[in-house]
Structures are given as structure tokens and as C-alpha cells.
Amino acid sequence: MPGRRIQVNTGLYGDVAGTLENLDKSAHAAALVIEWADLDRRLGFREGGRWMPSALADIVATVRVSLKRLEGAIEALTPGFRLAISLPGLPFPPLFHAAGAQTTEAEASLDEAVSHFSATVANRPGVAVVNARRLAEDSPPGGRYDLKSDLLTGLPYTLTHADAVAGALSGLVVPAAPKKGIISDLDDTLWHGLVGEVGPEGVSWDLASHHYLHALYQKLLSSLSEEGVLVGIASKNDPAVVELALRRSDLYLKPDHVFPVEAHWHAKSGSVARILKTWNISADSVVFVDDNAMELAEVAGEHPGIECIQFPGNDYAAGYAMLRKLRDVFGKERLSNDDALRLSSIRSGTEFRAATESGEASEVFLQSAQAVIEFDFQPAAGDSRLLELVNKTNQFNLNGARYTEADWLEAISRPGA
Prior knowledge:
Helices cover 43% and strands 9% of the residues. It has 17 helices and 8 strands. The strands form 2 sheets. It has a 5-stranded parallel sheet with strand order 6-5-4-7-8. Strands 1-2-3 form a 3-stranded parallel sheet, with helices on one face. Strand 2, helix 4 and strand 3 form a beta-alpha-beta unit. Helix 3 (56-75) runs parallel beside helix 4, helix 9 (212-226) runs parallel beside helix 13 (316-329) and helix 11 (268-279) packs across helix 12 (293-302). The radius of gyration is 26 Å and the shape is globular.
């Protein structure tokens, strides 16, 4: 964000909730890092008095009160404010009665309180919570705490963990725009085998054949489709054979989840071009997946900006990484009802263009569509579809200026907006 000036202000040490309550009203975003000692000083190593098991009930109660205060501060943030939150991830001091391998009732209660807080605030527009499981992969819990740094300077994190937390928070404060569509190859990608050689029943993706990685890919595509991601096919194949294979009842990706299907013997870059035109989106919003490196290079050369991913075959570690990457690039903070309508809308638009190009009167076609238009002058502030439409420079936005989520929520919250 080179156009933004960064200013660092200091709050009262040890008063995270108070700092959040007294944020500068001109600020647009914040990163909130919470640790156990922020919720009750007795849960830290640096201060908090004696470690007394008799105080555990009071500690749990204090943590609940602290989290409730944070909830109130978050609810009071101005509309459009962006808040990224990192939840406690450091070890507890040795104040519990059991050996470290055993979870005590007090520890479970503390974890439950934080989980309830996370579930509550994560539902608020503009708030994003760092995924604790993903953070644990990037920064294993055993390497997070630096006792020397904590005692001497007050920073409890190792530099490696500080880097991981900062990276996660920055990605949530300014999230990347999700991709909108995925174009997939078929042979040795959506399934194992060459359908033109072995026939529709000869391709496989089951556990028995040891090709279940293709099934996982199908499952992910099906899930993405239901979330509003467009799924298309670009394959060098006999279209009749492809149609039969796509209608197999055991295929996880159903035919009505896919549109359009480009199956022929011409260059895949041409197939991609026609799919992009049908979808009416740019190449930089699309991912192309193929097992053949040459096909990926051909498509990338003709469509700058498209993200090309090679299907890893039987490399299971690479397959797991691919599934995670696809989940990330298509990730949305929240789903709207309009997301599920995107594919049916594109199908209808294609039918309309086909009807008008064939000479059928557009008025007659529109009458048969029985369309209903609804006007809503007080839409929900958290409806992400509004921002998507306003930022569509090819249809709704003629000046090319784009809003961030924070700018947009602030604009529509003004009186008379």
C-alpha cells in the first residue's frame, strides 16, 4: 500500500482492551495480538505474582471478563474498520496441578472461553481471525516462546514466531482478492487415464486404484463451485466421449457444476480464451490446472496473468500442497446467496446471446425467462457482493477507481448514502 502513510502510536502497556477502545478514529485498520497475559497477568511469566492453583477459578473468571470487554470494544468500532486478530498461542506457566501431558479442567475452560470469543467476533463484518491451525504449521508451538526476551524486554515471541504472526495478520488486514474461476484439464488431472483410449468407464479416481488424489481434486472443485467459483473444462479429447465420462454417477464433480466444457483437438489457449469470454472475467482472476507442463506454458504465454498450476500426478505431498493453494487463492471471508447464482446467471446469459444471434427476438426470449428484478435501498452492510459489483470495472464502474472493503463500508454507513 505505497500510497498510505504509516504512523505508530503507543498505548498503555498491558492494557490491550483499553488501547482498542481508544483507537484513533481516523484509523482504517488494526492488528490485535492477544496473549494469555493480556487476559490475566497471572497467566504470564513476567509478572502476576505467585502461581497458586487455588486462584485458577478466579483466573478463568477474569479471562472471561477480559474477553467480554474486548467483544464490546470490537462491537463499538466504526463501520468499515478492518480488524485482524491473533489469538493466544503461547504456553501457560506451570501453575496447573497435572503433568504437562494432561489437560486440566481449568486449561480446557480457558481454551473454551477463547474459542467462544473467536466464534463470536469472527461473525462480525470487517473482523478476521488468524487460523490457529495454519499458524501452528508455519510456527510450531514449541518454538514460539522466548523466556529471555520476555523477561528482559517484554516481547515473549521468538523472532520466527513474530514473523509468522505478522505475516498472518498483514494478510488479513489487506487480503488478496480471491480468484473467480478455475479451468481444468481432464486426462490425468480430473481423473487418471486417457479417456479416449480406455473409454469413459476406464478412467479412475478411487482408493483401490491408488488414484484417489484425483477424487480429492474433484471434491474441491465441487465445493468451490457451490461457493460461486466458476469451473470450466479445457481438454484435447473427443467431445462425445468426454460427455459420457462427465456423466458418470460416481464423479464427485457433477455436470451442472461445470460450464463451459471445451473438448476438441485445438489449442487449449483458444479454449481458455472462449471460456474467459463466456465468463466475462480477465485472465488474472483465473487458475488453469493441467498435468502437462507444455500445455501450461502454452496457455500462460497466450494469457498473461493467468495462474497455471501443474497437477502433481502421484506426488502426494505436492498434491496436498496443491489442494491447500487452491483453497487459499479462492478463499472468501464470507459467502453470500448471490455467490451460488453466478453460474446459473452465466448459463442464462449464454442462452440469451445464442437466441439473439440465431435471430430469435430478444423480447420474446426475455418474456419466456420470467425474470424478477428486486430493488433494495437498505442492503446489509456486510454483503460482500455489493463491493464486488461496484469494483467490476467492465460493467458497473466506469472511472476505474476501486474501493477497499474498509473504504466501502465507511462510505455506505454515511447518512443518506
